[in-house]
Amino acid sequence: MFLINIMKNMSKLFIVIALLVSAQAIAKPVHQIAVDGIQYHLTKKDFVYKKVGKNMVGHEYIAYIDLSGDNGQKLYFNLGGTVIGKAGVEKTSIPKGAPDASGEIIYLFGKNPPKQYQYFRSNIELSCSHIAIGKDSFNNKHFLNKAESKDTKKLHKNRKEKVVINQQKVTKGKCKQLQVKIKHAYNQHYQGTSQGQYPMSIDNIDLTLSVLEKY
Predict the structure, then answer these.
(1) Which single residue of 10, 38, 74, 191 has CA 20 to 30 Å from 98?
(2) Please, are residues 138 and 122 in contact by the beta-carbon 8 Å criterion?
(3) 101 — phi, psi (to 5°)?
(4) Rounded CA gap, 146 and 140, in Å?
(5) pLDDT per residue rounded down to tens, the chain (215 residues)
(6) Is 203 exposed, middle or buried (0-12, 13-18, 19+ CB in 10 A)?
(7) How distant, in Å, are the alpha carbons of 19, 88, 145, 189 from that of 121?
(8) CB–CB of 169/131 below 8 Å?
(9) Which of 118, 121, 142, 134 is nearest to 169 (CA)?
(10) Bridge-partner residues for 137, per DSSP?
(11) Could you give the CA distance from residue 122 to residue 140 in angstroms, rounded to a whole number?
(12) Do the Cβ atoms of 212 and 36 come closer than 8 Å?
């Protein structure tokens, strides 16, 4: 009898845990939208901020939007607008003569290639109920010469980048909650250095989102 009571209590505990997990699986939405083609405005206040990682520190901004009207038809997803923030500064250990990520040859800068670069980069992902819809990214990178490196007023300068995601998708009626994620990372190794005083930041998000059946 004692063992039966224990098993009953454990079953109740597992049920409670399952309910809690399922409740957390769907995040609280910032908007309730429909498949109607209406443009909905998203700003930074609509996003939940999360910091992840250790050496490469990741910053994520996530917005959740409930969607109604997915009946298995082809859907057209449109996300566009701008992301504004301040450029970050990092060191580079790229040897003379080696190309950087964009293919630019460092030795074009002369005998002493720059050791710092200014960057503004981010990845934008649009998904719905764990179904990937589309993504966009930007990576504005600029190597700094000695004069630029000493000009502290310009190091942490403002940047503005466009975001465009236009995708069509058939989710078979499974699209219930949209997720817009904006994420970027910087190297925490430089936090204690002069370069580390200028990590990238996202200061403003201005996006519009719409879902429609046909154009």
Answers:
(1) 191
(2) yes
(3) -60, -30
(4) 19
(5) 544 554 455 554 444 444 444 434 456 777 889 999 999 999 999 999 998 776 667 789 999 999 999 999 999 999 999 999 998 888 765 554 555 445 544 444 445 556 778 889 999 999 999 999 999 999 988 888 878 877 877 788 899 999 999 999 999 999 999 999 999 876 665 554 554 567 888 999 999 999 999 76
(6) exposed
(7) 38, 9, 20, 18
(8) yes
(9) 134
(10) 123
(11) 9
(12) yes
Strand partners, 168: 76
The single residue listed with the structure tokens 């917005």 is 63
pLDDT score for 178: 97
Listing DSSP states for 63-103 in one string gives: EEEEEE--SSS-EEEEEEEEEEEE-EEEE--PPTT-B-TT-
The single-letter code of the amino acid at 79 is L
pLDDT at 23: 38
Runs of H (alpha helix) within the chain: 2-25, 146-150, 152-155
